[in-house]
Give the backbone structure.
Amino acid sequence: MGFAPIPKAPREGHAAPNLDDYDRVSATFRWDEAERALEHQPGGGLNIAHEAVTRHARGARAQQVAIRWLGKDGLGADAPPGARVELTYADLERESARFANALAALGVAPGDRVFGLCPRVPELYVAAFGALRHRAVFSPLFSAFGPDPIAQRLELGDARVLVTTERLYRRKIEPIRDRLPALAHVVVIGDRREPSGAPTPTSTPGTLDWRALVGDASDTHAIPETDPETPALLHFTSGTTGTPKGALHVHRAVLTHHVTGSLALDLHPGDVYWCTADPGWVTGTSYGIVAPLTNGVTMLIDEADFDVARWYRILAEEKVQVWYTAPTAIRMLMRAGLEPLAGADLSALRFLASVGEPLNPEAVVWSHAAFGAPFHDNWWQTETGGIMVANYASMEVRPGSMGRPLPGIEAAIVEVLDDGRVKVIDAPDTEGQLALRAGWPSMFRAYVNAEERYRKCFARDEAGDEWYLSGDLSRRDADGYYWFVGRADDVIKSAGHLIGPFEVESVLVEHPAVVEAAVIGKPDEVAGDLIKAFVVLHRGHEGTSELVKELLGFARARLGPAATPREIDVVQGLPKTRSGKIMRRLLRARELGLPEGDTSTLEEDVGGAKKESDS
Ligand code: ATP
Ligand code: MG
């Protein structure tokens, strides 16, 4: 798409990349050998909490800060007491031990489901590791969900215990509590800064106060031997393409977490690392709870929501070295321009990574200019449990490409045949479905209560080998770089061509007036589908008919007539999931006047694709 590759350029004065030579490491990588980097339990068991916390708490990192929590008012040297909380690895060991012991005292059995519905507060992380120690399944939910989506997920996930805050309890759990007979215990975290003064909800049977519960429990706990196939984490997908699915992961996933943290995110022990994702999404757990700690870093947790000035302050003041975020945030930073960045010293920053949606080449090039280092796009899904395709620190970045498969992961472009089998396409530059050879450590083991659906995700090739089908279309170039085309559901069939929305959107955002774009297919008698684009403009631009004409010409010159949108609407915002993904299915439904389907993960504050002129 006309963007030159960005040569590998380790930042001067910074640690050398963990993955020094992609080709060599990929050729020789073996999971059983990689497993030696983990400690394992004395009897050979494998438990995520042991690898992330206990092993460090017993060793040289015991007094290193594992979690530095920044409350909403926790920035700067004059933050009020309690607005910043630091937990060392030893603290996290003791606190998670207390919660594990408390679960045992409540009669919670291994395998029971413990849910979290919390803003990003320190107790959430303690609860996660406490549950994992106990061999319960931990399932973090995004705290901005309304009561109904929460009830749906608690029900589907068969929740036995829920950890939440007092505020959320009153607003969201009380109204649904009697719909959830299986929910035996709700543990309520009191507000640390503004106690409500209202009678505590703990007078309700089955409702417990966090502090009383963990305060009474012992702070030593030996993690029972854990079979690596023991269920550990339950994550709901983002609901971008339909009703969210609950993907179940096992303790063995920690091997992928650890390896990808090291090879794909380039985490070095002792690094200051910031993952901006909420644990309610898989990124915020795999790379916001587990992988950073198995790799011995100091992990920042920001309680507050996205804010340009705040983010640059955090990066500078906390001397962040590795930063993992998402395209939607990067586009918002682009939209804010470079002014808020002026004077921020980001010289500590070594590695920037992005996931969740396709990262427009424009954003990669912009970040390289703005931060002196480009964002490294990587691809994975709730189902894969960890990063599968990535741009690595030691490899040239091709803007617009998701990178190359993780060492140990065999990816392929496949065609699904009529008989249900798949054919691996060896020829480069051919579009097809992105598939992964089944059996990597963090592969999901089930969709809860949807066995048939789970089975349908896998298919065999002519040699009988089993592949996981991602549902995403992609192509691989001759050098092995993967290029995202679109979700299978979003691909547009127009006048005999298959068009991926990402390519069209990326061209539109290259135009200086456009900050964000979404492209859908709209049924048309002649063309099959005609391409319709929705664009959001940078500040200071107006959605005049001249601009729309200019954009059409701009797109046509770069994409050719077949892939050029026929219609462009200038809108104020795009409908997105709460994790920031553009929901094209909703744009399509609204455009065609069809039912909207599951909107439980829809972000509320964006009024959909309203035309600028409508508002
Ligand atoms: P649902 O499955 O409920 O529709 P979802 O697929 O958005 O939601 P996630 O598992 O959170 O749920 O997201 C994974 C998907 O996000 C991928 O299948 C892909 O479509 C998209 N994605 C993630 N990372 C990238 C990336 N780097 N480039 C392009 N697409 C990406
Ligand atoms: Mg999905």
Residues 237-242, 244, 281-282, 355-359, 377-379, 381-382, 402, 470, 472, 484, 487, 581 surround adenosine-5'-triphosphate (ligand 1) (CB under 6 Å). Residues 41-65+86-251 form a domain with the Rossmann fold fold (CATH 3.40.50.12780).
